Amino acid sequence: MANWTKPKALELLSKGWLGERPEELRQAIIHHGHIVTVPAGASVYRQGDLDHAGMYALLEGDLRAFYYYRDIEKMTLWTMGPGAWFGQAVLFDDGPRPVEFSAFSECRLFLLPISGYRRIVAREPRYMHDFALLLCYSIRTNFNATIARRLSARERAASAFVRLAHVHGRQEADGLLLDIRLSQSDIASLVGVSRQYMNELLAEWQRDGLIENGSRGIRICDLDGLKMLADS
Question: For the chain, what is the domain count?
Answer without folding.
Answer: 2
